């Protein structure tokens, strides 16, 4: 009987880790799609996480902008917010603000 709560707890932890990995992948792919360096932006938010394994795995899974689906600024910020990743969201917001306005935007 004692094994059940532990296995349930382990399932919840594994599910959270998978979701967190997906969040990092969305961030990394958004960076690639916008010509930004995901590793550099991540280190701006978390300078003490140079060897972050989740980021390394996410970077290995990113594809070219042409192969990837569109990821809006609002989507990446929403996903980061969902995980309470305010430091990275702050860095992403700064990158968005520095980006050249896209042609046809604001018409």
Commentary on this structure:
By secondary structure, the protein is an all-alpha fold. The protein contains 5 helices and no strands. The chain has helices at 3-33, 38-45, 53-61, 73-82, 86-98. Helix 4 (73-82) packs antiparallel against helix 5 (86-98). The longest helix has 31 residues, at 3-33. The radius of gyration is 16 Å and the shape is globular. The termini are far apart. The model is unreliable at 103-107 (pLDDT under 50).
Outline, from the CA principal axes?
Answer: globular
The helix count comes to: 5
Strand % is under 5%
User: Can you tell me the residue ranges where pLDDT is under 50 for at least 5 consecutive residues?
Assistant: 103-107
- Relative helix content: 55-70%
Rounded to the nearest angstrom, the radius of gyration is: 16 Å
**What class would the helix/strand composition place it in?**
mainly alpha
Largest sheet: none
Number of strands: 0
Average residue-wise pLDDT: 87
End-to-end distance, in Å? 63 Å
Topology order in helix (H) and strand (E) letters: HHHHH
